[in-house]
Specification:
Layout lengths: L2 H8 L10 E2 L18 E5 L5 E8 L26 H13 L5 E5 L6 H18 L5 E5 L6 H10 L2 E3 L7 H7 L5 H18 L6 E8 L6 H14 L4 E6 L16 H16 L21 H9 L5 E2 L5 H4 L7 H11 L7 H5 L5 H4 L3 E2 L15
Parallel strand pairs: 3-4, 4-5, 5-6, 6-7, 7-8, 9-10
Antiparallel strand pairs: 1-2, 2-3
Helix pairs in contact: 2-3, 3-4, 4-6, 7-8
This protein binds iron/sulfur cluster (SF4).
Length: 380
């Protein structure tokens, strides 16, 4: 099987694995003709906001593990393929030279243990950096059980590393992936990544994780508690939430799928934890520990806490302003700068600062007055 035929088998499955912010426009085609290399790549938004075209693929779809949610689980009957590091690096460089791909996301199934596969992933990244002098974006997956030295070596080569926790704690992971060890194989690796960054400050890659949402019947409190912990203590840049969807011929094939809206609410809440100064305890969970699907969590919080105690935008501090629906981190910076020039009196003043004034209106005072006359026009 040549390298392009392997990519036809190994590339498409990774389109379902979040790696960077993907734009919806370029899902790979399932059966690209051999001349249509562009069919394998995705538009992705980088951590700095830049958009690039990313090749996403696995090094191998062979796997010795038996994760209940995974199409690649051991013993499942489908056509598998494995790249050598040379093959994959050479193929990516062809893509790069033709202007088709600017960066690469690389993951793999596990055969021969996590450390063995990690060596092959690192070898691929090394070939790209050293033999082919590729200076663009590389995102490398850290395998369960990878050694500390391997992680440090990977971090010296790439722009982003990720360790997929899949579940929020030991008990939940045991239900979905009985052969993975949450604390030792996965969580510890995220801690090591942060330790390596702290030991020698410099330009290190960012780190992310992924959860399979709903596969272990966990609730949102569990997922967001672990997310908050990782932001605080493991320097996590981003948690990705992938809703569980049953795969035929897996142990969880009869488990119900997770609604897309739950995934969306988890993302919104994780941004509140990471960028808006909220804590898990403040989020509006129901009695079962889940976020209400019908409302945006920041709006739900504001309805409880700000509807009768509106925020004066001319004097509130940054942290308080960030609690107001419609005001984001950029809007706050603009607002604080504008306040030094004079008082803000109209909703139109806020709109000019990148604030969604119609959303904020119900929860603010402008120079001592509620912009109440405008409320009927702007339902929130
Ligand atoms: S180790 Fe990874 S590839 Fe293998 S079955 Fe589990 S999730 Fe799938």
């Amino acid at each position: 099987m040549d390298a392009l035929a392997k990519l036809e088998l190994l590339g498409p499955p990774t389109c379902f694995e979040p790696a960077e912010e993907m734009t919806g426009s370029s899902r790979p085609r399932r059966d690209p003709s051999r001349d249509e290399l562009a069919g394998f790549v995705h538009q992705a938004v980088m951590p700095n906001g830049r958009r690039i075209v990313l090749l996403k693929t696995m090094l191998s779809s062979a796997c010795e593990r038996d994760c209940g949610y995974c199409a690649f689980r051991q013993g499942r009957d489908f056509r598998r393929a494995t790249f050598t590091p040379d093959e994959l690096a050479g193929l990516f460089v062809q893509f790069h030279r033709k202007g088709i791909a600017e960066g690469i996301f690389l993951s793999s199934g596990i055969v021969g243990g996590g450390p063995h596969v990690q060596d092959r992933l690192i070898a691929t990244a090394e070939l790209l950096r050293r033999r082919y002098k590729f200076r663009g974006y590389i995102h490398l997956k850290i395998m369960p059980g990878a050694e500390r030295e391997q992680i440090a070596a990977a971090m010296r080569l790439v722009d982003r590393v990720s360790v997929n926790l899949e579940a929020p704690n030991t008990e939940r992971l045991a239900r979905m992936a009985p052969h993975k060890n949450f604390a030792e194989e996965l969580l510890l690796r995220l801690r090591w990544i942060e330790e390596i960054r702290q030991e020698s400050p410099g330009r290190w890659p960012s780190s992310t994780t992924q959860f399979v949402v709903g596969g272990a019947d966990e609730n949102d409190v569990e997922l967001l508690t672990t997310t908050e912990f990782l932001h605080r203590y493991a320097g996590l840049a981003r948690a990705y939430f992938s809703r569980f969807s049953p795969v035929p011929d897996t142990p969880l094939e009869n488990h119900p799928p997770t609604p897309a809206l739950r995934e969306h609410r988890l993302y919104q809440s994780s941004f509140l934890l990471r960028d808006y100064g909220f804590t898990v305890e403040e989020l509006p969970f129901d009695a079962g520990g889940n976020l209400p699907l019908e409302s945006d969590p920041k709006l739900a919080w504001a309805r409880q806490h700000l509807a009768h105690a509106p925020v004066e935008v001319n004097s509130a501090d940054r942290r308080t302003l960030l609690r107001v629906p419609g005001i984001g981190p950029k809007g706050v910076e603009n607002l604080l700068r504008e306040r030094r020039r004079g008082r803000l009196r109209e909703l139109a003043d806020l709109s000019k600062l990148g604030i969604v004034a119609k959303r904020a209106a119900r929860f603010i005072l402008l120079d001592g007055h509620r912009p109440s006359h405008q409320l009927a026009l702007w339902p929130v």
